[in-house]
Amino acid sequence: MLVLHVLVSIGFVQTVGQDHRAVELDREFLASSEPLSVLVAGSSHARNAIAAEELGGASIAVAGEHPVKTRFRLPWLLDRTDRPIGAVILELDAVSVAGFKADDYGPEYIWGRYVPFLRIGMLRGAPLPYAGKWAKAHLAPYAGEWGNVMLWRAGRRAFRDENRADRFQRQAPNWVRKTGEEAARVHFEGVVPYDPMKVWAFRELVNNLRQREMHVVVVRFPVTREYAAAAEGYGATPDLLDDVMEPLLSPGEVDQIDLSHLLDDRPDAFYDGDHVGRGWRQVVSVLRQELRGLGIRTSR
Asked: Cβ(156)–Cβ(40) under 8 Å?
């Protein structure tokens, strides 16, 4: 049984563990020493809204990533490269600071390479569950991962949809509007709209980047009008994000660009209720102008 456990663990690590989108993007980022105008980090909102290559940059954003994950993953990467980076773009939106999937780190083998589970467990006041995450990541990486193995076999490298999925780009506007309300319900119903651990992690990350003398640009990405209205109904209001940013803002060091209402009248620009689809070109165009206004050079 011990031999079988070791063999299955090795098999999981060498297949699913090597092909997860976060690991692939890590390899791509670390394989080059070319300067970047911007480095984009965050979740599927950033991943879908910004074609970073259009700005002379790169994206390490992965579907399902939240601020606690980014707090440790991004410094982990920066510690392993001297690659010049003009600015780091961080994602901030309502779901970034809500309790939605705040304790989700699956597959733990992937996120355990960055996140100190035992430390987070103590901070969360949940040492035993997080000790279990640590054990799963380091001692039994395949445990409970059958669903992700199936998604991996289907080619879902982040084990969910990302990268401006074509199959969603031609949905009817009414479908997109309705999906916005449904997505907000999934994200905010029954969870706190302001998760202290996520806010702590986001602020810690910004301060870490400042200590590295990196220019930080926090972007609020577009969502549909229906999603924003429904989110506010659950208490996920813009003033919560203002509260997160207030102690961090420092012109020229930590700046903010609010694009949340950029596509309010364009449901056709989204592939569902809260992810930019075909509207990414407009996002990039406006973002390019805003970045140049902050003194950040882009490739076009």
From this structure: no
Inter-CA distances, 143 with 2, 139, 175, Å? 14, 9, 37
Amino acid at 145: E
pLDDT tens digit sequence for 96-115: 999 999 999 989 999 999 99
Quote the CA–CA distance of 286 and 247 in Å, as a whole number.
26
Digit-coded pLDDT (tens) for 192-233? 999 999 999 999 999 999 999 999 999 999 999 999 999 999
Of 4, 28, 38, 26, give the one whose Cα is nearest residue 292.
38
Domains and CATH numbers, the chain: 2-293 (3.40.50.1110)
- Cα 203 to Cα 5: distance, rounded to the nearest angstrom: 40
Q: How far apart are CA 129 and CA 244, in angstroms?
A: 27
